[in-house]
Design brief:
Number of strands of chain A: 2
Strand order of the largest sheet of chain B: 1-2
Distance between the termini of chain B: 60 Å
Number of domains of chain B: 1
Number of strands of chain B: 2
Radius of gyration of chain A: 23 Å
Structural class of chain B: mainly alpha
Strand order of the largest sheet of chain A: 1-2
Number of helices of chain B: 11
Helix content of chain A: 55-70%
Structural class of chain A: mainly alpha
Distance between the termini of chain A: 11 Å
Order of helices and strands of chain A: HHHHHHHHHEEHHHHHHHHHH
Strand content of chain A: under 5%
CATH class of chain B: Mainly Alpha
Strand content of chain B: under 5%
CATH architecture of chain B: Orthogonal Bundle
Shape of chain B: globular
Helix content of chain B: over 70%
Oligomer: heterodimer
Shape of chain A: globular
C-alpha cells in the first residue's frame, strides 16, 4: 500500500477522509445503511417543514426507480431507457383507484353521468370503461401495482432477451416504448385524463391523503419500503443470483457457456427493476396526489437513469443519494436560474459518464487532486506528467465489483489511469491495494 | 365517379406527404446509420445537428433579407453547404472531445450525448429564443404543381425529395465507389482486420462521424422548407430516426431507406384514417413488434466475425 490510503489508515487519524473511507469499505456497508436510515427516518422529518418533507418524499419515490436501475443497469448491464413506463403504470393503477373513490355519485352529481371520473364526463363518455372497473377494489389495485408492470416487463424482456437483443438496441426499444405509452396516454384523453393526467385525488379508502399528517405517514411508509428494498436488493445482489448478474454484465458469453440461461437472468433483472419502479410510481401518486404522462415519457425515464448514474450506477445507497442530489439540484436551479438548469444537468451527464463513472459512491476525497491532474492531462493543458500518453479511455466501469467474482478480473482496471479510482461500495481492500501499485 | 377520383387525389396527396416526411427522416437516418453502423455509437445529439442546420439556414435567410437582397434567390444553396460544413465541423469537435473516449462503452456514449443534446437545446433556446422561427423561402420554392384539378403538390416537398435523392446517391457513390468507402465498409465489417490491413480506423471513424453530422445539418436545411424551427425540432425526430436505423438493420443503408419509407408511409396513410396520435402509436408499435420477431432488422449483411 502506498500514497494517501496509507496516511489515512494511520491510527487515530479520524478526519472526514477516514470516515468516508470507512463508510465506503465493504465491512461498513451496514454503517452506511444505518446513517441513511437515520437521515431519512429521524433527521429529515425533524428538521424539515411539511412542504419540504413532502417534496423529499416525492423524490424518494424516484429513488425506487434508481434502485431498480442499479440492479438492472449497474449490475446486470441492461440499460433501460423506459423505466418511466413502469413508474407511470404503477402510478396510474393507484391513481385510477383513488380517482374512482374521489368520484362517487354524490360528489359528481352535477355531471351528466354521475359516478364516473370528471375527465370522462368532459369527453362524452357515459359509462365506466371496462379497464377501469376492477380498480374499484383496493385489493385488486394493490396487486395490480406491481403485477401489471411486472407482467409487461416480463413480456418485453422475454421477447427481447430470448432473441438476444441487448445493449443499445434494448435501450432504444425501451425508449420507443416510453414514447408510445406517453403518446397513447395523451391521445386517449377520455380514458386516461390526457395531458393533465389523473388529478384531484382525495382519499384512500376513506382516509384523507392531503393532510400534513397523512403526508407524514405516507412519507414514513415510503421510507420504510425504500429501506426494505435496499436490504432485499443487497441480499439478492450478494447471493449467487447477484453474482451471476454481474458475470453476465462483464462476460455474457462465458455465463452462457457455463450453462446458465442468460435470457432468464436478464429478464429477472428487468422485471425486478420494473416492479420497483411501479412501487415508486404508486407511492408517488399517494404522496403527490396526481399522476400525469409527464412522468412516463422519454425525458423522465432518462432523468431517472442520470439519478442512478450520479449516485454510482452499482451502488444501492448511492442511488438514493444521487436521486436526492439531482432532484434537489433541479428544484433549486430551476427556481432560481431556469436557464441554467439544462446546461447544468447536461454537463452533469457528460461529467458523470466521462470522469466519474461510479458517481458519488466512487468519489474518494483523498484523490480529488488526482482527478484534477488526470483531467488536465486529458484536456492537454500540459503540466501533467503522470497522465498517460495518448490518453487511454477511462477505466472499465465498476470492474472492481467483479473482483468479488474472480480475483483475475481486477485487472480490468489496468487500462485506466491510476489517478482515477473506480472504487465502488463493495470494493475490497485488496483491489484497492492492487490499484495503488499502478 | 367524383367521389372515387376524390379519394384517389387524397391518397396521392397523403402519399406525397408521406414522401416528404420520408425524405427528412431518411436524411437524418442516413447520417445516423453511418455513425451507428460504423462505430456502434449512439449519438443522441443527432437531432440537435439537424437543428444546427435549420438555424443556420434561418440565419442566412435573415442575412440575405437584410444585407444582400441579390442573394435572396440563391441563398438556399449556400445554406445547404454552410449547414453541412458547420454541422460536420461541430461533429468533428464532439467526436474529438467526447465520443472517441467512449467507443468501448456504447451505453455511456448514449448518456453523454444525451447530456450534450440537453446543453445544445438550451443553447439554441438562449440564442434564438423558445419561439419557433422560419426561414423566408425564395420564390422558386413556393407554390405548387397541379397535375389535375384536385391534386395539389407543393414544390418545396418536391425540392426536399430531390435533395434527398441527390444526397443518398452521393452517399452510395462515396461508400461503393471511392477509396474512403472501401475503408468505411472494411472497418464496419471487421474493425480489427481492417486495422491490420493498414487502414487508419481512427481516421475513418472521425470522418464518418463528421459526415453523419453534416448530413443531419443538411437535413436541417431541408427541414426549414417544410416546417418552422424551434430549439427542440431535432429531438422530436430522434426516436423515429433510431427506430428507422434499427428497423432497417444497423449496417445496411438499403435497409435504412426501406425502413424510412415504410415507417413514413405507414404513418402518413394511417394518419388519414385515424387521429395523429393513434397513427403514431400504431406505427411505432408495429415496428417494435416486427423487431421482436426479427431483431436484426429488415436487411442484414452476412459477415463472418
Amino acid at each position: 500500500m502506498a500514497g494517501g490510503a496509507n496516511q489515512a489508515d494511520a491510527p487515530g487519524a479520524w478526519g472526514p477522509r477516514r470516515i468516508w473511507q470507512r463508510l465506503s469499505s465493504k465491512d461498513h456497508q451496514t454503517t452506511g445503511f444505518l446513517i441513511l436510515a437515520t437521515l431519512l427516518l429521524v433527521i429529515f422529518p425533524l428538521s424539515m417543514g411539511a412542504f419540504r418533507l413532502n417534496l423529499l418524499g416525492k423524490y424518494l419515490t424516484y429513488a425506487f426507480v434508481a434502485l431498480g436501475l442499479v440492479v438492472c443497469w449497474g449490475h446486470a448491464g441492461i440499460l433501460s431507457l423506459g423505466q418511466g413506463v413502469f413508474f407511470g403504470l404503477g402510478g396510474y393503477c393507484m391513481a385510477m383507484f383513488l380517482k374512482l373513490e374521489a368520484s362517487d355519485p354524490i360528489s359528481t352529481k352535477i355531471q351528466s353521468t354521475p359516478g364516473i371520473p370528471d375527465f370522462m364526463d368532459w369527453n362524452q363518455i357515459t359509462q365506466l370503461p371496462h379497464v377501469w372497473v376492477p380498480f374499484k377494489s383496493l385489493l385488486f389495485t394493490l396487486v395490480a401495482v406491481p403485477l401489471l408492470p411486472g407482467l409487461l416487463a416480463l413480456i418485453i424482456g422475454t421477447a427481447m432477451f430470448k432473441r438476444r437483443v441487448g445493449g443499445v438496441y434494448f435501450a432504444i426499444i425501451t425508449q420507443a416504448i416510453a414514447a408510445i405509452l406517453s403518446i397513447l396516454i395523451i391521445g386517449q384523453q377520455g380514458y386516461t385524463g390526457g395531458v393533465n393526467g389523473i388529478t384531484d385525488l382525495k382519499t384512500l379508502h376513506g382516509w384523507d391523503i392531503r393532510t400534513d399528517r397523512a403526508h407524514m405517514i405516507l412519507y414514513m411508509v415510503n421510507v420504510c419500503l425504500l429501506l426494505g428494498t435496499i436490504v432485499v436488493s443487497r441480499r439478492m445482489l450478494a447471493s449467487k443470483l447477484g453474482r451471476l448478474l454481474l458475470a453476465l454484465r462483464d462476460k455474457e458469453e462465458r455465463v452462457r457457456f457455463s450453462g446458465y440461461d442468460v435470457a432468464n437472468l436478464k429478464t429477472f433483472a428487468f422485471v425486478y427493476a420494473a416492479v420497483l419502479s411501479a412501487i415508486g410510481g404508486a407511492m408517488f401518486t399517494l404522496q403527490v396526489g396526481f399522476m400525469s404522462p409527464s412522468f412516463v415519457g422519454i425525458v423522465p425515464s432518462i432523468e431517472m437513469v442520470i439519478c442512478a448514474a450520479v449516485g454510482g450506477r452499482s451502488s444501492l445507497m448511492g442511488a438514493v443519494y444521487g436521486t436526492l442530489l439531482v432532484n434537489f439540484g433541479k428544484t433549486f436551479f430551476s427556481e432560481r436560474f431556469p436557464e441554467l438548469w439544462l446546461f447544468l444537468i447536461g454537463a452533469l451527464f457528460i461529467l458523470v459518464v466521462m470522469v466519474f463513472p461510479d458517481g458519488v459512491a466512487g468519489i474518494r476525497l483523498d484523490k480529488i487532486g488526482g482527478y484534477w491532474t488526470w483531467l488536465r492531462g486529458r484536456l492537454g493543458l500540459g503540466g501533467a506528467k503522470d497522465a498517460p500518453p495518448g490518453s487511454s479511455p477511462p477505466p472499465v466501469i465498476g470492474a472492481v465489483d467483479s473482483s468479488a467474482l474472480s480475483a483475475g478480473s481486477g485487472g480490468g482496471v489496468v487500462g485506466g489511469p491510476s489517478t482515477i479510482l473506480p472504487s465502488v461500495s463493495v470494493a475490497s481492500e485488496r483491489s484497492a491495494a492492487s490499484r495503488m501499485k499502478l | 365517379m367524383t367521389s372515387v377520383s376524390d379519394l384517389f387525389s387524397v391518397l396521392v396527396m397523403q402519399g406525397f406527404n408521406g414522401l416528404s416526411s420520408f425524405s427528412v427522416l431518411l436524411l437524418m437516418a442516413l447520417g445516423l446509420a453511418i455513425i451507428f453502423g460504423q462505430m456502434g455509437v449512439i449519438n443522441m445529439a443527432h437531432g440537435e445537428f439537424l437543428t444546427i442546420g435549420a438555424y443556420t439556414t434561418y440565419l442566412l435567410s435573415e442575412v440575405s433579407q437584410r444585407w444582400a437582397p441579390w442573394l435572396q434567390k440563391s441563398y438556399f444553396v449556400f445554406a445547404v453547404l454552410v449547414s453541412f460544413g458547420l454541422a460536420a465541423g461541430i461533429g468533428l469537435l464532439v467526436e474529438h472531445v467526447m465520443v472517441r473516449h467512449l467507443y468501448r462503452r456504447p451505453l455511456d456514449t448514449l448518456l453523454a450525448t444525451w447530456g450534450l443534446s440537453l446543453i445544445m437545446q438550451q443553447g439554441f433556446r438562449s440564442i434564438f429564443g423558445a419561439k419557433e422561427v422560419s426561414a423566408v423561402l425564395p420564390d422558386w420554392l413556393m407554390g405548387s404543381f397541379k397535375p389535375t384539378q384536385s391534386i395539389d403538390i407543393p414544390i418545396n416537398g418536391v425540392f426536399v425529395m430531390g435533395l434527398t435523392l441527390l444526397l443518398t446517391s452521393a452517399v452510395f457513390f462515396m461508400l461503393l465507389r471511392t477509396r474512403w468507402g472501401v475503408w468505411v465498409r472494411a472497418t464496419t465489417q471487421n474493425r480489427v482486420m481492417a486495422g491490420a490491413a493498414g487502414i487508419n480506423t481512427r481516421k475513418v471513424d472521425r470522418s464518418a462521424f463528421a459526415l453523419g453530422c453534416g448530413l443531419a445539418g443538411i437535413a436541417g436545411a431541408a427541414f426549414t422548407t417544410i416546417g418552422s424551427t424551434g430549439p427542440t425540432s431535432g429531438s422530436l425526430y430522434i426516436v423515429d430516426t433510431f427506430l428507422v436505423v434499427v428497423f432497417g438493420g444497423a449496417e445496411s443503408l438499403l435497409g435504412t431507406i426501406a425502413s424510412a419509407f415504410g415507417i413514413a408511409q405507414t404513418q402518413a396513410t394511417s394518419e388519414f384514417f385515424l387521429t395523429g396520435s393513434t397513427a403514431k402509436v400504431l406505427t411505432l408499435t408495429s415496428v417494435i413488434l416486427i423487431l421482436m420477431l426479427r431483431p436484426q432488422g429488415l436487411f442484414t449483411i452476412r459477415v463472418r466475425r
